[in-house]
């Protein structure tokens, strides 16, 4: 069997395992993150008809709020069970970044995660095909064929990927992880494939309304597409020509 065929089979197995979800996920007793819509069949391929994206309004993002980070940790099982011996080795799928204009003193807070680029450099440099982009725009890492070379980490301009140095405990079944592999935000692919939204989006309260909107960038009638058309949106490092699926307003 060729290396390409082996990689294709590993990808299908990984995506199939990732898409298996329960009917609902709770972050605390009585708090339901979502009730999924009709789920995609596990053997149904992702379609380029959709391009999933997230729009973040930094004007609604409170610097003291980290609910998006906590929700991501709870949903995907990173952070809470990891060793505290070396903070630089802990995974970080999403982080809050504080910006300050030195001229005016204006401060902003915004979440940063994998930007799920249309032209992802992490995929370009991966020697095994472990870093991959689905047809619907979601960028993933196949842990079965990741060799831990970390080329993708060096190529990512957003510092969105983490390398797992140590053994893991208490993993979430919907988000397979492994020592010696690279990982990053999956846009909660297990929830998206079940008809839901990423955990960070569901958990975001915002100051005067939700700061995060998830949807299909290709659907002109979706909320995210309407907002981008009306108010516009910026890409982080747009000069690189990566065309990320995560857009920001207010920066």
Model description:
- The chain is of the alpha+beta class and 251 residues long.
- It has seven helices and eleven strands.
- The strands form five sheets. It has a three-stranded mixed beta sheet.
- The longest helix has 16 residues, at 3-18.
- 38% of the residues are buried.
- Residues 10-40 have low confidence and may be disordered.
Major sheet attributes: 3 strands, mixed
Provide mean pLDDT, rounded: 82
**End-to-end distance:** 49 Å
Top CATH class: Alpha Beta
Poorly predicted parts:
10-40
Morphology call: globular
Instruction: Kindly identify the CATH topology.
Output: Alpha-Beta Plaits
Question: Total number of β-strand segments?
Answer: 11
Structure class: alpha+beta
Helix percentage range: 10-25%
Give the number of domains. Answer: 1
CATH-scheme architecture: 2-Layer Sandwich
Give me the side-by-side strand order of the main sheet. Answer: 10-3-11
